[in-house]
Amino acid sequence: MNKPHDDDDDDDDGADISPRPRRKGIYILPNLFTLAALFGGFYAIVMAMNGHFEHAAYGVFSAMVLDSLDGRVARMTNTQSTFGEQMDSLSDMVSFGAAPALIAYEWALKGLGKPGWIAAFVYCSCAALRLARFNTNLAVVDKRFFQGLPSPAAAALVMGFIWLMDNEGFQGGSEGHWLMWTTFGVTLYAGLTMVTNVPFYSFKDVSFKKSVPFVVIVAIALAIGAINIHLPGALFGLFLVYGLSGYGVYVWKRMKGRPVSLISTSKDEPDEQGLHR
Fold it and tell me: Do the domain assignments include residue 67?
């Protein structure tokens, strides 16, 4: 026997039916740039394993260019996301943390034995610490400066040195201990400078929308020409100057009696305020 029709039951059943929550997608365009930067770091490691250190340098420097574009593309297209931020950090860890450390080890540091792989590990771990600190202090650091050497600049310093030496015909560890220990020093310097509180100018307050005198364009053209005369030497020299500039800014601020700390007020981690002075 059929059950009598009950309007109240139908109303109750209909009230329990709710629309299925919509799945969140992933923005394609900015993450394509991030994946391309990740590929640059991976490509650099593979090239170094095969002894092609010039191509390894191409991979890391290409990753730098792509890394500088993904955030801008996301802001221009209004496609920022938490997923993109996390993806960018992981890509940076591979391209500017693991890749330079492994390439430096493969090129010269492995000839030193234990000190060599320790230097490579210190660089890699400092890159991880630098990225983690950058993500947690993003809201409280003075935007005009980086707190410590940025990981892309540190990678450029290490890879610029390797590219320059390789371009001049030096064969890494086979040249003797002088080049091994020089690579050791450059790798350690780049790694440890990433985790200092030394201020490095970020160029974020530079506006490309403002008009400039004609001589500035001429100077830029001359700089591009000079860089192309000897690309490895010019890039290494450029990032060496930048890698030393933070200490110059630090000393200058100390001499002028200005505050050196880049941290304003940390709301989330008040117990850590003393670590950033």
Answer: yes
> CATH number of the domain that 123 lies in?
1.20.120.1760
Average pLDDT, the chain: 83
Say which amino acid occupies 148. Answer: G
First to last CA, the chain: 83
User: Hey, how many other C-beta atoms are within 10 angstroms of the C-beta on 271?
Assistant: 7
Kindly state whether residue 130 falls inside one of the protein's structural domains: yes
Token readout for 170 is 């030096």
Q: Is residue 65 part of a domain?
A: yes
Spatial contact of 236 and 110, defined as CB atoms under 8 Å apart: no
Q: What pLDDT is stored for residue 275 in this prediction?
A: 38
Distance (Å, whole) CA 247 – CA 59? 29
pLDDT value of position 118: 96
Compute the chain's Rg from CA coordinates: 25
Alpha-carbon distance of 57 to 59, in angstroms, equals 5
- The answer, yes or no, to whether residue 181 has pLDDT greater than 80, is yes
pTM for the whole structure: 0.82
Question: Do the domain assignments include residue 14?
Answer: no
Higher pLDDT: 228 or 275? It is 228
Label residue 78 exposed, middle or buried (CB < 10 Å: 0-12, 13-18, 19+): exposed
CB within 8 A of 82, min separation 6: which ones? none
